[in-house]
Amino acid sequence: MNDTITAIYQYVQPLIDLIMLNLGENLLNLFIYAVGVSVYAVVVWKLYHHLGKRTLFKTDLNQPKKLRFLHKFWGFIQFLIKSLIIFPFFSMIWFLILGGFILLLSKTQDVEHILLMSVTVIIATRITAYYNEDLSKDLAKLIPLALLGVFIVDPAFFSIDATIGKIYALPGKIHIIIQYMISLVIIEFMLRSIVRIKLNFRQKKSQSIQ
Fold first, then answer.
1. Is residue 133 part of a domain?
2. Residue 24: inside a domain, yes or no?
């Protein structure tokens, strides 16, 4: 009996040793990568799901309905608040998130190109949102998911030293960031204005027909 147990143990022991080889390190790496990719995917989903919407903010604040003039004036005030205060705030958040992703996962691009690509994706996403929201959402997630794919296939593509160097270079590019943010706000304001004018025109046309 003892001989049988010993024989089984001698047969199983190499397999157990093989399974236990670097077990803690491998499981830790697995956990870190799984959590990291999951968090990244959730953030990307939140980003493109919100950024790709045509109507970003609904601030329906108890509009006075008795007087037509006050109603229109209040609507105009809301329009200005959304376009010139709320939208720039969220635009900066989108810019920081998307730019941060590209900054972390891009090894060869310089800071100016990263900033350009980040704001280009945001502007293109906002423009296409007024044409087709599905197209806009696909565009918003294109670069982040492509970068994730590159990182999964080639982890060496990520360089901590290069990332730190780019972060140190950011203060010298503040003027570029401000210029891009102003451009983004102006474009969004123009798009919203065009849509608002079209809606008012349609309302007047429908009222005249009635």
1. yes
2. no
**More confident position, 160 or 136:** 136
Q: Are 43 and 105 in contact (CB under 8 A)?
A: no
Per residue in 41-61, pLDDT (tens digit) is 888 888 777 777 777 666 454
> Into how many domains does the chain fold?
1
DSSP 73: H
- Asked if the structure places residue 14 within a domain, the reply is no
Q: Considering only CA atoms, which of 122, 131, 54 is closest in space to residue 88?
A: 122
Q: 144 is in which domain, residue-wise? A: 84-203
What is the number of other CB atoms lying within 10 angstroms of the CB of residue 141?
Answer: 20
- Read off the pLDDT of residues 111-129 as tens digits, 9 standing for 90 and up: 888 889 888 888 888 888 8
71, 62 contact by CB (below 8 A): no
Which comes out higher in pLDDT, residue 67 or 82? 82
Within a domain: 155: yes
Inter-CA distances, 161 with 106, 136, 150, Å? 12, 34, 18
Give the 3-state DSSP-derived string for 100-164, with helices as H, strands as E and coil as C.
HHHHHHCCCCCHHHHHHHHHHHHHHHHHHHCCCHHHHHHHHHHHHHHHHHHHHHCHHHCCHHHHH
Among 117, 91, 97, CA closest to 186: 91
Q: Which of 6-15, 80-89, 127-136, 178-187 has the lowest mean pLDDT?
A: 6-15
Q: With CA atoms as reference, report the closest residue to 48 among 103, 98, 87, 117.
A: 98
